[in-house]
Amino acid sequence: MVYASAIPVKAYLNAGNLDVAFQEEVGRLVIAAQYFGALRLAALGSKPGTRRIFLMPLGGGVFNNRAELIVGALATALELLALELGREVFARLDIRLLAFRGSAGEQERMSKLLAALVPASSSSTAAASKTPSVPSWPAAPPAAPPAALPAAPPAAAPDAAPAAAPAAPLESTEGFVRPVAPASVPSASFAPAAEPAAAADAAARPWQLKGRSTSLLDALLDDD
Description:
- The protein is mainly alpha-helical.
- It contains 6 helices and 4 strands.
- It is extended, with a radius of gyration of 50 Å.
- The protein starts with 19 loop residues before the first helix and ends with a helix.
- The relative contact order is 0.08.
């Protein structure tokens, strides 16, 4: 048996206080913590099989906490238990509500409030007992299939390489091949003009002006 103390008291004189909503929220959290502690202790018990747990409406009666607040705290405790231990934990717990001095009216009111938050239980044990059981927490809904990832945008075509400058036209001059300078570029930048002495010297060396590979000896023999 677990005894829970330090139940928050909602004083009658505070009923019209502007802080009543804050006081009720603190009270709900304290009650939820005590319900959760009792449920967790029972769920982690070492004994196998189903365990039956009886819960009183903590904070009711002379403590003057509203029934809706108490039931909301119990629902919060059940959800916290499912988050920590998994929803399958309720398969081995038989949770039942009690009322102060067996008040049938209080028991019925608490059961209806809780049924509005948690779906009804299909436990045969609960149907055979006069003590109302806490509805089992619903199973987790099936996970939605993951959304398809958006298709990657087509890769941008690489920047085209700059067009190569057109090759300069070639010009043949008595066996020599040299590029022709563009009109905008002076021809002197490609081949400086031959001086008269150089031209005369070139005429004396005919093997350098022929368009085939010619040795010096062959050129001399041809001249002879």
